[in-house]
Specification:
Distance between the termini of chain A: 13 Å
Structural class of chain A: alpha/beta
Number of domains of chain A: 2
Pathway (chains A, B, C, D, E, F): Lipid metabolism; fatty acid beta-oxidation
CATH class of the largest domain in chain A: Alpha Beta
Strand content of chain A: 15-25%
Order of helices and strands of chain A: EEHEEHHEEHEEHHEHEHHHH
Number of helices of chain A: 11
Radius of gyration of chain A: 20 Å
GO molecular function (chains A, B, C, D, E, F): delta(3,5)-delta(2,4)-dienoyl-CoA isomerase activity
Oligomer: homohexamer
Family (chains A, B, C, D, E, F): Belongs to the enoyl-CoA hydratase/isomerase family.
Organism (chains A, B, C, D, E, F): Neohortaea acidophila
CATH architecture of the largest domain in chain A: Alpha-Beta Complex
Keywords (chains A, B, C, D, E, F): Acetylation, Fatty acid metabolism, Isomerase, Lipid metabolism, Peroxisome, Virulence
Strand order of the largest sheet of chain A: 1-2-3-5-7-10
Chain lengths: ~280, ~280, ~280, ~280, ~280, ~280
């Protein structure tokens, strides 16, 4: 597959290096805010990348200087009935429709987490609301120093329901900080994000951050995809289960995976100081 | 309800701003150390605040310059038989009494965590033993730079049983640090507390810290209480369950909660640049 | 028991202070890399220390200037058939053998975590692969500033299966950082390790770090072993279960443990400003 | 304590044998249907019995020939505003009130499960709705052959929320049967109840069933209360956790409990063919 | 929607009564054995029925006299490459393909369980392999007395991976029986199935069983769909979580659901002895 | 390996058919009661059988006419200090010794459950105390009609701590029955055991039951050991985890296991109506 297989409105999917894909949110005039249709596209893109054997690492970024994404486009959401779903109906029936709808949106964002290939989020400018929902699904988060973050939802009278509140407590970030920003909807800076570990690095500009992400993605792409995808899968599984379950899981996982030829090739390449070549996955 | 509904010995409950309550531990001559009766009061106060519709955010602080709280008043505990419960009886029967007693004390502290409204802990001076048990139940922790923390219990020959050892591993704090301070009972500083994320901010003085907490509490109080209380509830639930369970919970939670008028009012207020007014909760 | 009870090839077990044991990995010419036999010894040593009543705290370190441990000795592992286990057999049968083998190795490393006495890891130089697997089982991690860490496994084409991927997400460390280093196998420094909380302190030299560890271990050894061992046990249990389960566990735990004479002795010693003496455990 | 300590409207608490309490639902003219106030009483009675050292086993029964209980008294519930709680208010605010109310009712029923002493439910006649909620909290369930059971809630347009749907799947009963009766609200007989294991015995009449329950309760009362209460506690804990957690729990539980003098006395009594006498608990 | 919206090869979807759908597996010449394509259809059908507001209860049955389904059509599976997926490739890469494929098949079967409307399985003749996988996802299981069941997979050298081994332990059936039939692949009869509770009723013929299922489905269809769908959802959730989590879930669920008009209508209809009419869902 | 590798006092290990091992508890004069040393042997035997490639199914039985096992030999346990462990010591220290001891005994019994090969328990005569602990670890339980069961522990003043209370709630048996027999220590019959599903079949005599077990074991031994051992492992895992986790586990398990040649051989044998021959495991 190639770029032509990834035509989705408001997204640019490119391949800046061998085995590296870049997903760019592309609605810069609206600060990359999400319309309802964009959620569907997001899910479709990551489901596709997940099994694309030409992809070993993915960068997620936003077009333009001003924003990674400002979150949900409230106007577009209102126009499409997204915000007033089932209004006027029996409370229970409206409740069921709301549940189905939240499930649908959650699934599109969860597709980023379930994607078998590692995803590196590169944030800059506004990283509001949905930005947090989405990037807590990513594996590595880095940003430009001008990034302004916000768990925005209480500002519009709702508790965030697309993943932020469920995933932040599993991000290795101070709970006092999480509550502080989630309860107040206040802005927080790149510096704070680094201090509490929400991002693992801050760069002087969006460009520098993207360069670094590309370097990282290319580095990952040189490794055995069996090892890399296993590592992502097992860390996520372990995060979601007890340690004993994580140990059991990797044991069963590796029952097949260490039978790969990649281990031998990697060891040999190490000895011969050559770059190993691994089959696609 | 108002201040007169919250008369408890050794606690001052005041309302420094609209929708903001402040609970001050008030036994400064004894470094705000807890007598057995004070545990009961603590539980009663927070159970009451939880459903008080005039409260949207709570500050927890200690009276005097020297201590947030030095922990359990060992002398008072001894006098009341608290430390020698069932001594001399059959080991099993004494064991059952100890269990019942620990359960009772745990419940009073857990009341702080279960309180539907966010609680901001402001620490200064000594923050020993019970101080950690109690504030790990709070949502946001900040402190003055003179604060000295200690997980004190091994110093008196016991493993802490009021919550510290169970809640610290869920606070987003380095486990190596947690073990270090819990196994040695050593003092740790505000600076360390900030570095590892136990507190999310340190201020020059108790006064400054309290001012900041009041600012924070007032900010929270301007938001929709439906959104704020949902946010607290869902973060705590998510911390205690797997991510998939957190996602399911917020989905069902919001089935009713997004049917609130608050969302509309908040959106409209945002557009009109006005301060929204939300009904009590 | 004494040093003579702990004769294991490639390990030096010494007792630098009363109630303090030091386990030194001793294969400096090979950067303290592990042969298959060393895993078995590691498990045996910690299982023994766990019930040794002359031990209250343990230091884990590596001999020589260059490495804590460079990880698995790939050559030795190959020679012993460790890496080619069941090669050529039916895939399923080979898979079962691999599972049994991983289980065996995991158990030796888990022995460090299950050891009833606290373990302080002191790292320096290379701390690669197995170094992370082993030290995530330790209670406190400190290091010299020259330490170079690496989750090395993807470099040789496998997902780490001895514990790193399952325990790091429970170490209170930024998940973005964990994924970054585990997916790339890149080196990371003592400074980064401190910032993200993987270690809780960094010292100028291995010697200084060891001195500090000894100080810490001696401090722990002065406390009631009932309290110290309970504290370790309950923190680990709480990390592995929900908060409510942790609270229940410490309640039942203390049903017997607070009936100890140590509490009384510790309190009395505190009042009399004397050093308490506790019975062995 | 004695019968005079247990004065609650619509309940008779008696002591038909040493260490045996009997709780009789006493509103026979209304088929023992529950008013809102009766829930509060139910919780209070079982909380009290739980720590009453003169009680070692409890029988739960209903007064009159016609019903154990026909469930919630819908009329009384309506009159007290119980069914229309918060009607007309903002959906979210009404939702919060409903949650608080359900929590309150659940807690009263859960008190039966949490009661430290075993509870034997003896059903006859109508055992509808709340009857199932309550008795799934009991330890042993037996009935007269005239009993008619029903999970009644869908008949009045709601999913049962006081425990039936959460506890039945943990009762060791065929899930196909549970769904059948819960989705249709149909009546089921004593015979079916026995076949699927909801009850463990059926007797010809209420009297016979009560006689058998008394025999059972008296038998339990002759055993060591340390052993009996531990057995109840550990089975319930094990039901609610994984097997490994159950094994760990009983291990820690018995650390204190097997230090009881009861074991020695029980063994000696066994040898001497005498009836042992155990201290109160 | 109607029958014309449910055109799928080898399935007949009909509507034998108002609000009742019947899904008939229709490949009688091949004992209703499943081709790979039929799995996809199965998932699609139940995903569609789940949100079809004209459906309140579903019957799942097989066409012809001889079999509900004999399971996977091994020949068809072989022809489509289903059984030799990735054969000859690197073991790890083949392993990944196998995982993706199993996931896909599991998802189609899980669609039956996730379907919001109750599903009643009516078995007869051969009910082999996949028959157990599928019907453990159903809510109610009944059968004709001529039914022969078998967990067939070990017969062809594999451990069942489409759900049987994971769901049977949650069906309220004797574990000794489950192991017996799963380890031997032996046939078991309708009588045994009833005794252990795998089915909740046995009828003399397929026709009688279908009549009974229709009666059951029609009965369910007369109840409030809010109550019925909530009941299914909450029982399944409770089965998959601890009791405390089940209680919390129904509490939050009913926060919206008891605000329905259905409760009032159901109560009123009860009083007026009329049949209530509920809005679609 | 053969019988000569399994010499353990008070146990006879024989091989009545190809791939079938029989473990006979052999202390008939003492009703096969367990001495402390026998626990160690039990664990050793099953650990060895687990990896013995000549074994595919195991029968567990007791020598003599009178008892499967009467449980712990209280006299022998007393003589060896087993019952008075640490008596007179500090309560906490005694508590720690008790914990270590219970852990040790639990591990020997858990070895039966962890054994990779299926274990069929054949009970007769007295099946008291430990008999239940041990057989709840077995896969299939059958018995002679003269069997008398008892969860005996409350009779001697303790809550059972070797597994009965933790495993019975996971045996698919009516909870009301479990509580009934565990709280009273009463005898129960083979007939009751069958009705509630504790055993899956009852035979007229011990001989008949043993014959049937041998038939079952031989049948299992004809199947692919890859399929059989996977089936046991996955059912046990699923019983101990949520359904979604069970589905994930079998998916990863089969990533290697369905790459076996056994599937092909089994299919071919099925077509050719021949008995397949599988490689050892």
């Amino acid at each position: 597959m190639g770029a032509s297989d990834y035509k989705f409105e408001h997204f640019n999917v490119t391949f800046p290096a061998e085995y590296v894909a870049q997903v760019q949110i592309d609605r810069p005039k609206k600060l990359n805010a999400f319309t309802p249709a964009m959620f569907t596209s997001l899910g479709a893109i990551f489901n596709k990348l997940s099994h694309d054997e030409n992809v070993r690492a993915i960068i997620l970024t936003g077009n333009g200087d001003r924003a990674f994404t400002a979150g949900l486009d409230v106007q577009a959401a209102s126009d499409s009935g997204f915000m007033t779903l089932g209004k006027g109906e029996d409370v229970a029936r409206r409740g069921v429709k709301i549940q189905r709808h939240i499930q649908e949106i959650q699934d599109t964002v969860t597709a980023v987490e379930k994607c078998e290939k590692p995803v590196i989020a590169v944030m800059h400018g506004y990283a509001y609301g949905l930005a947090i929902d989405m990037t807590t699904c990513c594996d590595v988060r880095i940003c430009a120093k001008d990034t302004t973050f916000s768990v925005r939802e209480v500002e519009i009278g709702i508790a965030a329901d697309v993943g932020t509140l469920s995933r932040l407590p599993y991000s290795g970030v101070s709970m006092s900080f999480i509550k502080d920003v989630a309860l107040t909807a206040r802005d927080w800076s790149a510096e704070e994000a680094l201090r509490v570990g929400f991002v693992s690095a801050v760069y002087d500009s969006k460009k520098e951050a993207l360069d670094r992400a590309l370097h990282l993605a290319k580095l990952i792409a040189t490794k055995s995809p069996v090892a890399v995808q296993g590592t992502k899968q097992v860390i996520n599984y372990s995060r979601d289960h007890q340690i004993v379950d994580g140990l059991e899981y990797i044991k069963v996982w590796n029952a097949s995976m260490v039978q790969t030829k990649d281990t031998e090739d990697a060891l040999l390449a190490g000895i011969k100081k050559k770059k190993p070549v691994f089959a696609k996955l």
